[in-house]
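Figure S4 source data
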Amino acid sequence: MVAAVRTPCLAASILLLAACSKKDPPPAPPPAPAVDNAKAANDKLIAEAKQFVKDADPKLRKLLVDASLAEWTNETDITKEHEAATAKASEIQSVEITKMVKAARRFDPVLDKLDPDTKRQLLLLKFQAQPAPDDAKQATELATTAAAMQSTYGKGVCAVTNGKETCQDIEFYGKALETNRHPAELLKTWKTWHDSVGHAERDLFSKYVGLANEGAKAIGFANVTELWQANYDMPAATFAPEVDRLWNQVKPLYTQLHCYARRKLNTMYGDAVVPKTGPIPAHLFGNMWAQSWEYLYPELEPFKGVAPIDVTPVLAKSYDAQKMVRMGESFYTSLGFEPLPPTFWERSLFTKPAGKDVVCHASAWDVQYNDDLRIKMCIKPQQEDLWVIHHELGHDFYFQHYFQLPILYQAGANDGFHEAIGDTIQLSMTPAYLKTKGLIDKADKNDKATINQQMKVALEKVAFLPFAVMVDKWRWDVFSGAVTPEKYNQHWWELEQQYQGISAPEPRAATDFDPGAKYHVAANVPYMRYFLADILQFQFHRALCKKIGFTGPLDECSIYGNKDAGAAYGKMLSLGASKPWQDALEQLTGQREMDATAILEYFAPLQKWLEDQNKGQACGW
C-alpha cells in the first residue's frame, strides 16, 4: 500500500516539473565579482620590483665597496697578492651583479608600469659592472685576465739585472718624449713602450674579448659593443650615428690644426721624417699616443714672445704636490662647494712612493661611496699636472654632490658628464685667472695673445678629439667580431689614419698590439666618455658664462669665485644618474642634445687664423 500511495505522488511531481519547464526560469542569483587575475599579477610584480630595488641597494653597495677597496690597494701597491685579491673581488662583484640583473628580468613585463624611480634603477643595474659569463670557470678567468692586464700596464717595462727586476712605468717613458726633438731617440722610446707593454697585453686582451662577450650575453646583450652603446639613454643603434654627427661638427677645425702642425713639423724635420702631405708619424707629438700635442707648443706657437703661458717655472720653484692640489680645491670652493674632507688629504696618493710599483695613471675615487674622496696621481710640478689635478677634482666634487643618493644613482648623468666637470673648470683657468694666482706675470689682451692662448688650449683639447673617437670605434669593431685578432693592430692604425691623420712611425706587425700601450684598453675603461666630455665641457662652459651674464668671447670667461655659477653647476651635479642625461643637460644649458657648436664658437678666432695660414696647402690626409 505504501508503494501504491507513493507512485501517484511521484507521477504528479513529474507532471508538475514538466509544466514548470515550459515557463521562464526564475532569475539566477547575481554572480560573484570577477577577479582580474592579470591586474592582480601585475600589481604583485610591481610591488616586488619596488622591494627588489630597495633590497638591492645594500647588496650592491657592499659589492662595489669591496671591489673598490681591493682595486685601490692594488693600484697603490702592485703585488701578486693584491692583484689576486683584486681579481677575486672583481669576480665576486661581476658574478653577483650578473645574478641580480638576471633576477630583475622578471620585471620586464611591467617595466612601463613602474614608477620612474624604480624603472630607472632597474635600467642602471645592467651597467654596474662587467657582467660575468654563466660558466663559473670563465667568470674566474675573466676577472684574473682583467687584473693581469691592468697590473702588466702599471708595472711598465721591466728588466732583470743580477737577479733583481726593475721596472719603468709610463711616467718615465712619457717624460722622455715631451721635450726631445731627435726623431731617432723619439722612435726608440716609442718602440720600447709599445713593443714591451703593448705586446705583453696582446694575448691577454684577445682572451678577455671572448670572456667579456660571454658576460654581456649572460645579461641579454649580443656583445660588449652593444652593452656599451646601450648605456646612453638612447637606443644602442642610434649612439654611433650620434658620435659621427658630433665628430663631423668639429672635424673641419681639427683638419686645419693638423694641416698647420704638419707644415711646421715638416719644416723642422724635413720630408724624410714628415711628408708634406698625408699622415704625420705618431712618435713626434711629445705624447705616447699622439692624443695631446701640448708639448709641441714651443714649435707651433703662432707669435713668439707674446703672452707666454707656462706656469711650470713657478710650480717647480714654489709648489709641492699637495700645494698644487690645494690650489685645485680652492677653485671649487670659490664656487661655494664644500671643502674636501680631511680623509682626502690622509688617504690620497699624490706622489709615487719609493720601493713600490703603482699605477701612476691619474684617477679620482670615492672608494667607499660615502664621501671617501681620494685621488691617485704621481704629481710633478708642471703645468700639465696642475690641469690634470683640476680635472680629477672635478670627479671628486661630483662624487661629493651625489654620495647620499641610492647607490645606483651614484654616477654621472652619463660617463661623458663625469669627465667634463673638471675640464669645464680648466676652461676658466684663463690667463687672467693664472695671473691672480701668481702663476704668470701678465695676462696680455690683444689679437696675438688670443691666438697664442687658443693654440695652447687647442693642442690639448682639439688635438684630442679624433683619438677619443677612434679608441672605442676600434673596440666596437673588436667586440662585435668585425675585426679578428690577426687584424687587431692593422685596424688600429687604419683608424688612427682615418680619424687622426696619424701613421705608425715604422711598419708594425700583426703580432704587435699597439692598442695595449694605452691604459684604458689594458684596464677595459670605455673611452667614448672622453670624446663626449670634450664636447660637453664647452657646452657647459658656454651655459655657465651666460648664467653669470658674461657677454665677451668665450675664451676670456672665467667662473672663478662666482657663487651663482657654482649653484647652477651644483644643481646639475646633485642629480647624479637619477635622471636621463638629457634632463641634466637641459637643466644647465637649456638644450637636450649634445652640441659641438660651443667648441667652434670658442675657437673661432683660431680657426680663422689657421685657415689663413694654411692657404695653398693640401690639407687633409
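Figure S5 source data
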Amino acid sequence: MTEQTTLPSPADTPAAAPAGPPRPWKARAARRVLEQAEALLDDARLLTTADLGLRERVRDAYTATREVRVHADLRAVSVTALEERRKKLRVAVLEKAGYKHVAQVLVAGTDRLVEAGIGAGTAKLATSAARELADEVDAELRFRIDVDPDDPYATVLVQSLYAFGLATDARHRHLDEARRVADVVPGNLEPAQLATSLWRRLVAPADKKAAALTAVSVLDAQVRAARLTDDARAVRAAVGQPPEGGEVWADFEARSAEYYGLLSQVVDLGDDHEAAEGGLPADVVRRVEAQPLDRSLLRANLRGYQQFGARYALVQRRTILGDEMGLGKTMQSIAVAAHLVATGGTHVLVVCPASVVTNWKREVEQHSDLAAVVLHGTDREQAAARWVTEGGVAVTTFEVLGRLDLPYDLRPALMVVDEAHYVKNPETLRGREVRRWADRSDRVLFLSGTPMENKVAEFKNMVAYLQPEVAGQLDPNAGLSGAKAFRRIVAPAYLRRNQEDVLTELPEMVQVEEWEQFGPVDGAAYRDAVLAGNFMKMRRAAFAVSDAGDSAKLVRLRELVTEAVDAGRRVIVFSYFLSVLEQVMDLLGDLAVGPLTGSVPVPERQTMVDALSAPGGPSVLVSQITAGGVGLNVQAASVVIFCEPQVKPTIEAQAVARAHRMGQTRTVQVHRLLVEQSVDQRMMEILGSKSALFEEFARQSEITDASPSAVDVAAPTEATLSRTILAEEQERLSRTP
C-alpha cells in the first residue's frame, strides 16, 4: 500500500526551541525531558513498524484458520477418493490401518503412515493424492470468518486483525509526526545528556553547555507537541495482550466490514480485481490507480474496491457511483471528502433524503476526523452560518437545500448527492437546486444503487447534471446491443460494482416464499375488497381481522419471529400499509420497536435502528417500506419479512439491502408472506419478469433510451397493475362457487 503524507497543519509543524538565550534547565528537569523524549522516540518507532510484525501475525493466523477449514472439508471425503487419483494405490491398506478419510492421511504424512505399517510406496502415493485434493479444496474455498467464539483459530485471527487495525490506523494518523520525531529526537539526545549532570555542566565549555540546554529545549518542544502517545500505548497493549475473545468478537460483529478490509490488505481473498474496477477501460483504470488517496483524516480501513471508487471520484471529478446497495458508497464518499479536506479543501456538502440525515452525521463522525454539521430542523440557519465560517461536512435534505441562506460565492470542494435517483427529473424544484449547487462545486459525486429505477432513459438525465458532453453521446436507439459502446462512453461518469463480484465473504441470502391460504375471516375480507373494486384493500385484506388467529399471514409472521428470536436473530418486518404495521405491532408487543414511518422525525428513526442493535433491546424493527427501506443501515438484523409484494421490484431490493450488506456476519433470510389465489400471486407473476429484466440490465451498467418493446425495465404503473389484477380477480371469483 502506498503511503500518503499530509499537508502540515499548525499542530503538525515541527516544534522548535524558543529563540534567544537557552533556557537554564535544572539537571533533574533535563533528565525528565530526556526520559520523555526517549519514550516518545520509542512510540514513534513503534507506530512506523508495528504493523509489519502484526501483518505477519495476521497472515499466520489466516493460514492456520484456512487450513483448519480445508481439513474439515476433507474429513467428509473418504480415502477411497484417493484411489481415483492414484490407480496403483491400495486403499484397503489405509482402511485396515484405521485411516477412514482424507484429512487423516494428510495430517499423518508419509513418515507416520510408514510407522503405522503402511508400505513406503503406498504411503507416498496416498500422501501426494491427499495433498492434491487439499490444494483443490483450498482453491475453491470461499473464506469467511464465522462468528464462533469457540473456534480458537478464528478467535486468534480476529484478535490479530484487531491489533493490526489499531496499528494501521495509528500509522496513517501519525505518520508525519512519527517521522518528524524520528528525525529530530535522536540528534538531540546525545548533546542533551550534558545538561542532566550538574558536575559535567560546571566543567563543560560555555558553547557545549549552551548547545546542551538548547537540545533539551528542542526535545521538550517535541514532547509537548506530541499527539501520538495515546495511540502508541493502545497499539503496544494490543501487540502484547490482545483483547479477550468475547470482547473482540463483539467488536467484529459491529465492524466486520473493517476487519475484512484489513484482511484483504494482507492476503488475497480471491477478489475479482477487474470487477472492482467496474469494467472500466484500461486508460481510465491507469489514471485512477495513479491517484494518491490521503487517509490521514480517515478512521476506517477501506476495501480494495472502495479505495478504487474513492480514487475514481477524485480523478473523474463529477461522477455517479452506482455500486449495488450494501457496498459502502457512504464510506467511499467520506474517503473522498477526507482526502480533499486533508489536502486543502474546507467545505463538503451532502444532500440526502431526510431519513438518512442522522446516519450520515454518525458515519462521518465515526469514520473520520471531519466535523459534521446538520442543516436540517429549526436551527438550520445557525448551523449553516457555523458551517460557512468553520467548514466541515454539511448534511442537508433535498427539501431544505433551496431554503438555505448561503453565500453565493461559497464553492464546496465536494458535493455528495445520496439516493441521487431522487433528482432523475431535472425539471423539478429539487432537480434545479441540485444542479445549481453542482455547478458551484469543484467535485460532485452522485450515489445511487438503483440509478435506473423506472426507465433507463432517466439515467441520461443524471449524467447530464455532471458531464453533459458524456450524456450527449448516449445513443437513444442503441438498445442492449450497444452495451460495449455504452460502457466506453460512460466510463468517465459512471462506476458500478456488484456484491457477489467484490464481497467474497458476503453471507448467503436465503429467500423463501411463504405461501398461505385464506381462512374464513381473511378470505371474506379479500372477497369483499375484490367485489368493491378496491385494489389497496385487496393488498392488505390478509390483515383485515380483529383476531390475529384469523389471519394466515399474522399466524405465519408470529411463527417466523419466534423462530428467529429463539435463534438469537434480529428481524425487520416491512409493509407498505400503516394499518398492517399497527397490526404487527399489536401482535409482537414488547418484542418490537416502531413503527418506523414517514411521519417519524429523522432522529427518532435512527434511535429505532439503534434500539434494534442494542444488547437486550427489542428483537424486531417494524417499518414502512417507503421510510425504512432506503438509506438506513440495519445490519444487526439478519431476517427480513415482507408482509405483501411491492409494486416496484426495486423497492424490495432496496429493503433487503438494509440487512444484506457489507458488514453482515450472518446468512440473511428473506421471507415473503403470500396468499395463493390472490392479488399476491398475480403480483409475483407479473413483477417477477420485470425484476429479472431490471437486474440483468442494471448489473451490466448498460444504459439506453430504447423503446419499451426493446428494453423496458420499468415496472408497470400502479394504475395499470391494479386494473389488470382487479379484472382478473373479479373474473376468477365470479367463477368460484
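Residues 507-735 form a domain with the Rossmann fold fold (CATH 3.40.50.300). Residues 557 and 673 are 8 Å apart (CA to CA).
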